Please model this.
Amino acid sequence: MPAIFVYMTAGSMEEANKVADALISERLAACVNILPGMRSCYYWKGKVERDEEVVLIAKSKEALLPLLVEKVKEVHSYEVPCVVSIPISGGNPDFLDWIKRETR
Model:
């Protein structure tokens, strides 16, 4: 089962923790890194927006991505939360095995 990184954003540290807790408690991710202090500039509903956001990077399995996306949408405040996956093509086999063991 291929491992993936899942890149997400949240509007606050509180929300990032809420998302991370939901993913970890349901074993949809083995780990979630939370990186505060990102500035985002984006186009939304006809105008340019600028906001402070928090980045989340989850380590999971490709097969869990649909469930992970649904869980994020369930607990997230954004109308269209950013949730995208990046395949992991290699790395420490022990770490990759750990991801597999710690997720459903």
The radius of gyration is 14 Å. The chain has three helices and four strands. The CA atoms of residues 41 and 50 lie 4 Å apart. Helices lie at 13-25, 65-75, 93-102.
